[in-house]
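Q: Predict the bound structure with 6-O-alpha-D-glucopyranosyl-D-fructose.
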Amino acid sequence: MESNKIRRAWWKESAVYQIYPRSFFDSNGDGIGDLNGIAQKLDYIASLGVGAVWLNPVYDSPNDDMGYDIRDYEAIMQEFGTMADFDALLNGLHERGLRLIMDLVVNHSSDEHAWFVESRKSKDNPYRDYYIWRDGKNGAEPNNWASFFTPSAWKYDETSGQWYLHLFSEKQPDLNWKNPAVREEVYAMMNRWFDRGVDGFRMDVINLIAKAEGLPDGSGKPTPEGYVFAPEYFADQVNVHDYLQEMRHKCFDGRDCMCVGETPFSSSETGYSYVDPEKGELDMVFSFDLMDIDSGKSGKWEIIPWNLARMKQIVEDWQTALSNGWNSLFWSNHDQPRPVSRFCSTKTEELRVRSAKMLGTAMHLMRGTPFIYQGEEIGMTNVPFRGIEDLRDLESLKFYALAEARGEGEAAWNAILKKGRDNARAPMQWSAEKNGGFTSGEPWLMVNPNAETINVNAAERDPESILHYYRKLLRFRSENETLIYGAFEMIEREHKQIFGYQRMLNEETFIIVCNMSDSEAKLSADIEGECVLRNINGAIETRALEPYEARVYRS
Ligand code: ISL
Ligand code: CA
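A: Predicted complex:
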């Protein structure tokens, strides 16, 4: 509340635009988005009013997990371009006052990374300890851990007769962070990217880098294949903090950078332990609580209806726990379905547009840094995939194969349509032309047929579009310090339809009320002040919000 206690930072005042390079814009007709494609769209990106761009991994990779399996941390993926293209893109961003955040994937590398190629050669190879190797137990895996993508988190390697740990796919062996040599390699690599000019990192599953001593068996409910998902032994272990403090010391100190950690399973309390400004380990974390709001006990594929009461609880919990730190604010990313399809209505074009604007308003004006995932600014939706052959994401493909083997293929398919990661990864929709204007060739992943109407060109022409509203919303936030640094307080706590909060700084108050339902919602009290932003036109009904209406008042 006291303005003299504000800790200012550029990354608090900016919004971030997330780009999935493979699907953003293809400059050479091979069906794959690339760095030059991004460079051609820089004016568009700048026009949104964001202050930074986060690129999903652009490093050399065999693409088992679309770039999250890195073969060389210091080379650019051939399909995306060259290091010269990268430097040109970085320059183009900086010229426009935009910063660049790179993805940092160091919980694991590709099994094709030179370190792993060496590591698997023999037990006494100098790189052996770069990864996590163990003897089997009675001819089976060293422990019962399940992986994110395959039944077991262990893979047997003939050459040495030992097993290696991979929390993700078999082609993503986990690095051994206990080994100081690994840590030094990572820090040196990060510093070379910083010296090249990048402004920060988004750190992939950074809270998983330390594993519990002895790698104990998990005791939770086994998966259908008999393994146990054991985040209690691989997430948020005490050593993570030592590593992050070391990293801060060796890489961030003295640099004006921004680092945001992806932290699945972390509670708000743990989240704060990463962003506590006194410790300065990370600037922000990506919480998963909101992203898990429609997941049942067995995980993301057990889809349950989300509810507003729980959403409010999550928001208030994180806003409160991090009130002395800083939150990240997002509705989606490359791993999540499209938010209008997930949380609102796409029944009619009018409702889709309204919903998207309402979601943007609800998220962006909370205390934290808003992240916009490409296509969100035009309200892109989930994709009507026709069958398994339309999919490219290994997570969905592996899940489907396992489910089908159990005779549960149909249920799995329905879950994939709702939550599969390819929903977000389908190409950006630029125009009504062939392939949504994304490529002149054959797109690597199908373009949503609704690109004919939902696309950037159409949105540019329509003054009432989501795109123009997002521009207004971002400007509005950046011009009002109260919306950036002001205190956060939930209002309409018990309301079944309205999501509301206020932001306060010095003598100024903003009140944000959003109807998250498809029917009219009555406010429980009059709101003081002037309505300064709204997602629909027409006369204001003082005490009631139309379906998916959003309003902002200032007093
Ligand atoms: O994508 C998920 C659910 O659909 C998560 O379980 C996801 O695997 C987890 O959040 C970690 O995500 C990150 O690391 C993965 C990569 O596949 C994701 O794209 C990335 O965001 C492994 O590197
Ligand atoms: Ca290309």
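A: The pocket of 6-O-alpha-D-glucopyranosyl-D-fructose (ligand 1) is lined by residues 65, 68, 105, 148, 168, 204-205, 262, 264, 300, 334-335, 395, 421 (CB under 6 Å).
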